[in-house]
Design a protein that fits this description.
Four copies of one chain form a homotetramer.
Chain A lengths: L2 H15 L1 H7 L6 H8 L3 H7 L3 H26 L3 H8 L1 H4 L3 H19 L3 H27 L11 H13 L4 H15 L4
Helix pairs in contact in A: 1-3, 1-5, 2-8, 3-4, 5-6, 5-8, 6-9
Chain B binds a DNA duplex (21 and 21 nucleotides) through helix 1, helix 3 and helix 4.
Chain lengths: ~190, ~190, ~190, ~190
DNA sequence: TATGAATGAGAATTCATTCAT
DNA sequence: CATGAATGAATTCTCATTCAT
């Protein structure tokens, strides 16, 4: 393994080891000392791999996506219906699977950080992430339109859907409200025959 | 003026005086010392009127709503169409009026605080606020249904619309995206003839 | 009632009203605000009657003695044996009577203050108090010697007995240890026949 | 020197460096800033070695005992008579040696802290300390009994003697009073022939 | 490369006391 | 007389970051 790869892997390992801590105490209430402790390394070593505290949660977000995305891709490929695909795409907001719940909580911490310190880098990161998932949704919906399952206007709702998810999410709406919303929107966008 | 009223008014005055500071630097980056300075009072005096820093932004939110709500009510009463009413209701997210822009930025700070410290009190405050505006939207939409302007299913989208607004908001989507969304949704919910 | 007497009485009343507070929280953990609150007066008014916080606990000590001393005197007069008299004299350290327990706890707070801030005035106050009770003990013991109940050397132990009581007291020794000590010393000082 | 040992030693060094400060101003009147200053370290560094202010005076007490105990042991071993041994045992309360005077004053501060904040940990610490010296006294007295120098009842006075010392101490009784007491008690406990 | 000891600026909060009403 | 609003100095403690080893 090259030196650089080794460094990248350690960076990932450190970030992942902080996961529980972020969830339990929340980003703002965690100190570098605590992070170093759970990572099993020295305080100074943190700064060999990260430029600052925020850098860590971004890496963590990336790691979680690295885990999440292939699974998502697979789920999407195995899905038959549009409905099913959408359900998988939004599993971050809905799933009760422990792994996903963890990812969801980290995402909340991430959102809090982006609100507290909206630096250019953060905004870009956030936009890229949003774009990635939006594109996936776009593909699903376009497929639905091509299959005559969805109205053409469905495409206009793509940018809003993730916004709605985030909105439900930050106001802590229960899962069933979210599902209801997806169902209602699906009905509305379904091609009537 | 009674003593108690005087105290309430001063509390409001202090909260309002911090408005610019919250917008410029953001809640987390402000110290009590700075707040006391812009309020023109001693550090200790802050604690005569507020139990802690968060208390201040809640009071500020309340003050802004106290100013905002009567204007909103008036605007709604003077509006003829449903579209217009909805536009007014969402003006917090859209208006370029300096006062509203200020309110919008404070709302963002407020959201950040709710994400950082989701205490029971905060969640309740947030829920009450959400409920208030949701009820207004409900009235507007029910009126539209009664007037045969909207589909009955429109009522199902009420809980999601504020979520969508918040979602657009926290991901810093530009105004026109938001307007586009409202228009698209309006079209979809419009009763077809 | 003369103006001055009125003032003195109010001073006493304020001091007494703080009694529970001192016991519950301890002198160092109490603020003037709290004192004013339980006294049912304004914060500023405290300074009309006391020069500072310590002044209050001294007044309180005095008040408690004013209540305690006549009762003690009466008990001593009604006692037949020396043993009984000594028991009454040390009731501050021993009694389970609620009133006395209160006095005991206040005495502990008082001791803490004298250790923290051994000003000349405090030391004098403490010495006077000690002298008063020492003299009572002296009388009791001299009576015992005259009655041929006690050895003459008993008189030498007078200064030490209160010290021993205080020592047991500050190291929180249980009541039975203290009683045992008194019994042992009594035996030792008893005139052998 | 191992890292841990280094840390322990620095902890001791810091505690010892504060000694004069505690004596001059008293525990309650000292700030962490002052402590850091006399220790020649940064304010934050204090918290690398101590959990709080009280922790420092406990460490200081321990350090002084570490110095005191071997000397005491030696003195006791070199002593011939019981009287002499007792005198050494109580030297903390009596000696005019500068080192011991310092230890005495720190002990007073320690007592003040125990009265102000009678936490479980403090009480335990205090009890252990008391037990240690009580056991030494017990050995001395038992030896005296075995040698037929002391009455058997002498053993009953062991628990009280340190209490008496502390009592004399906190009411600032002069040395000769304390010596007189020891002499009187010795006489009383001496086996009569 | 890894470390953790050292730090001092800065945080929130408290509080005895004053003084205008 | 009584008050309580106002205060700012002072307090304890935190923490991201640096740097010598």
């Amino acid at each position: 393994m090259s030196k650089q790869l080794k460094k990248i892997n350690k960076r990932k390992a450190i970030a992942k080891s902080t996961c529980d801590l972020f969830i339990t105490k929340g980003f703002v209430n965690i100190s570098i000392s605590e992070i170093a402790k759970v990572a099993g390394i020295g305080k100074g070593t943190i700064y060999e791999y990260f430029t600052n505290k925020e850098d860590i949660i971004f890496e963590l977000m990336s790691c979680l996506q690295e885990d999440y995305d292939p699974k998502l891709k697979e789920s999407l490929q195995n899905s038959q219906s549009i409905n099913e695909k959408i359900k998988y795409l939004f599993s971050l907001y809905l799933s009760d699977h422990p792994t996903v719940k963890t990812q969801r909580q980290i995402y909340k911490e991430f959102l809090a950080v982006t609100l507290n310190n909206p630096s250019a880098a953060i905004i870009e990161y956030q936009n890229n992430m949003m774009e990635k998932y939006t594109n996936i949704l776009l593909e699903i919906i376009q497929e639905g339109i091509e299959n005559n399952e969805l109205k053409e206007s469905a495409v206009h709702f793509i940018p809003s859907i993730f916004a709605t998810m985030d909105g439900f999410f930050i106001s802590r709406k229960p899962k069933d409200i979210i599902i209801e919303y997806i169902d209602n929107l699906s009905n509305l966008l379904k091609k009537e025959e």
